[in-house]
């Protein structure tokens, strides 16, 4: 197992899972949070907590000191490239042994979207840093489907602007499993892993999976992108992220992420969770 691991983004969906899993394996873990509240959550998970701000390079020297592996995930914000760049530079200056970057497989044509351009630029920063690295590129998170939980429970309908497109949707738990494995073992230097589920699926397939576990017919209804963007803002998402997601959906609908890899299996030794696995595990959130 590697020496000390720093998790940048330790309170997010992926980062918090990585912290918990590393702690569970007995790893030496430090989590970077940008607030005292976040640091408290990291400590409660059993890890060392430090506070730093990714937009303030001066606050990052201490958190990266003595780190062997830095797992870096950054939030989807307008200044994501700046934040990731500061973290990468701090890792370089501190002599970190390896960077594990949680990027994304953005549906093609990726560079036609703001998120795709951001991740592309950050990946180039990682590759040119001089620090050994591993890049993870997960596709559309199955956990995003939880945004439809309320309408599935109340009306047996899920609304998405996905058209009839297919995508290799990935369970966040598999992203965490891969991140932990590559952070605590050797042989992944210079590798880029595209993380998907075991099959490329459509929202029709997602509805069918929930129909099976809920025992009632679940319908998928395609909606205009504009309506979906307004809905995301109404649920509390920032306008930037809602607009950014709005750019992605037409590419998903046009099968820009229609692929499945076996990278989860190759790295972890277990198959990626399927949409049926996800539906069964989280049926309770959808009224089951």
What's the order of the H and E elements?
A: EHEHEHEHEHEHEEHEEHEHHHH
The strand line-up of the biggest sheet is 3-2-1-4-5-6-9
CATH architecture of the domain at 5-138 and 170-195 and 260-271: 3-Layer(aba) Sandwich
* Average pLDDT, all residues: 97
The CATH homologous superfamily name of the domain at 5-138 and 170-195 and 260-271 equals NAD(P)-binding Rossmann-like Domain
Structural class: alpha/beta
CATH class category name of the domain at 5-138 and 170-195 and 260-271: Alpha Beta
Radius of gyration: 19 Å
**Total number of beta strands:** 11
In quaternary terms, these chains amount to single chain
State the end-to-end CA separation. Answer: 40 Å
Could you name the CATH topology of the domain at 5-138 and 170-195 and 260-271? Rossmann fold
Largest sheet: 7 strands, parallel
Shape: globular
Strand content: 15-25%
Description of the molecule:
Helix 4 (about 80-95) links the parallel strand 4 (about 70) and strand 5 (about 100). The chain has a domain at about 5-140 and about 170-195 and about 260-270: Rossmann fold, CATH 3.40.50. By secondary structure, it is of the alpha/beta class. The chain is about 45% helix and about 15% strand. It has helices spanning about 15-25, 35-45, 60-65, 80-95, 115-125, 150-155, 170-185, 205-215, 225-235, 240-255, 265-270, 275-280, and strands spanning about 5-10, 30-35, 50, 70, 100, 135-140, 155-160, 165, 190-195, 200, 220. It has a seven-stranded parallel β-sheet, sandwiched between helices. The protein has a two-stranded parallel ribbon with strand order 7-11.
